[in-house]
Amino acid sequence: MNIQTKHMLLGVAALAASTLTQAAQVNVAVAANFTAPMTAIAAAFAKDTGHEARLAFGSSGKFYAQIKNGAPFQVFLSADDTKPAKLEEEGMTVAGSRFTYAIGTLVLWSARPGFVDDQAAVLKRGAYNRLAIANPRLAPYGAAAMEVLDGMGLTAAATPKLVQGENIAQTYQFALSGNAELGFIALSQVMQDGRISGGSAWIVPGNLHQPIRQDAVLLSSGRDNAAAAALMKYLQGDKARAIIRSYGYEL
Amino acid sequence: MGFSDADLAAIGLTLRLAGITTVLLLFIGTPIAWWLARTRSWWKGPVGAVVALPLVLPPTVLGFYLLVAMGPHGPVGQFTQWLGIGTLPFTFWGLVVASVFYSMPFVVQPIQNAIESLGERPLEVAATLRAGPWDTFFSVVLPLARPGFLTATILGFAHTVGEFGVVLMIGGNIPGVTRVVSVQIYDHVEALEYAEAHWLAGAMVLFSFLVLLALYTLNPTARRKPS
Predict the structure, then answer these.
(1) Around Cβ B218, how many Cβ atoms within 10 Å?
(2) B180 lies within 8 A of chain A by CB
(3) Do A163 and B86 touch (CB under 8 A)?
(4) B139/A57 Cα distance (integer angstroms)
(5) 3-state DSSP call for residue B171?
């Protein structure tokens, strides 16, 4: 190998190394309800910082189990505030990194236009075939939905018509396919460009249930990951917050 | 520690689902297997492939199509509504229909293999003795192909017990109606109730092992996977 080629190879290696340090990757576990906003945020994040956020969507409970068993995630965006706190207690996170990235809004939604009015009359009358909720044992949106039914004194009437999705994405699928005429889902799932994109909906007043605080946390494996640190910062910046709000979350 | 009432309800429901599905599949699957084993029609290939589809398809694909097809806007849903029985997702009978599709190859293929391996000879002998088709089936085919039927029954039952993805997609997790053991285990894991999950999961491992052990000791010819 002559000297010129050697130099060239060294140059290529150096270039590769420099792009690696500049544009790092971070694996993010994202709660299903945050799918749409996080996809938009990741795109903006890549454009602004050059880092790549690789997103996995699913239920927070599954992510918790996977993270505890060594899943290669550096950042966890949970659908609640208990699982990140639990991981923190168990020493699986970078201390002091936990913060609330969004407060969820619950909505009663039907794929049928005009089926749900802003007083939720259809729910009170019981004039529907099935009501889809996320599993209240697992999903905070499901727990909030049960709280709303309790508060309205409708639990007994609704129970025989309840069907449960294992997460909020599946709950939406049940309602979207029309198999359930009503569904308690996340506002973010039907929000597009700041308004509800189809069907009919009742945005549940926040005072009818405990706030759905969604916490993010930097996991131990992300301690030295530049992209992970940058993403945690980016999520708290104005640009990300504007995106989060546009999908109907409070902050 | 042990099984909660909800766990026991899930176990009972799962056994009922698997039992009904297996009986239905023996009635539906036997003529299909018979036809597949005996036909020379061009359709043998396509029909055999359709029957085998659940072997390779992810259960989520099957579950998704069933959810849409059996929903109020799908063709099956339109038909069941026209019959006046509503739509099938989130009902026990919806799970039965899904399980029949899902476990079909595990029943059809062992029976088909058994009938194919009989060859023409026993049927020709039966014909020369003037046995009618039904008589031939019950006096000749059924006894000779018994190991195939036994394998089909056990595999169909066990495979339905192990069903998860399809149930998750169309079940709606209703206690006593669609919450089967596999879903109950999944819920335990998701709710971080690992001790409860271990009990049920351990029971499933034991059950599956015993079923296969019974299959291989009672029926030594069944050691091949259905292919």
Answers:
(1) 12
(2) no
(3) no
(4) 57
(5) coil
* A194 φ, ψ (degrees, to nearest 5): 80, 5
Residues in chain B with CB shorter than 8 Å from the CB of A59 are 190
3-state secondary structure of A216: strand
The vertex-A69 CA angle with A68 and A73, nearest 5°, equals 75
B101 Cβ contact list (under 8 Å, min separation 6): B54, B62, B66
Instruction: Give the bridge partners for A214, in sequence order.
Output: A102
**ipTM for this model:** 0.75
Q: Which residue is listed with tokens 């549940």? A: A204
Q: Which of these, B39, B60, B43, B178, lies nearest to B112 by C-alpha position?
A: B39
Q: Residue A103 is encoded by which pair of tokens?
A: 């407060």
**Count of CB atoms situated within 10 Å of the CB of B96:** 17
Q: What is the mean pLDDT of each run of 10 residues along chain B (227 residues)?
A: 88 96 97 94 95 92 91 92 91 95 96 92 88 87 91 94 91 89 90 90 93 82 51
Partner-chain contact B174 A129, CB within 8 Å: no
> Which amino acid does the sequence have at A151?
G
Chain B CB contacts of A85 below 8 Å: none
Q: How far is it, in rounded angstroms, from Cα B131 to Cα B134?
A: 8
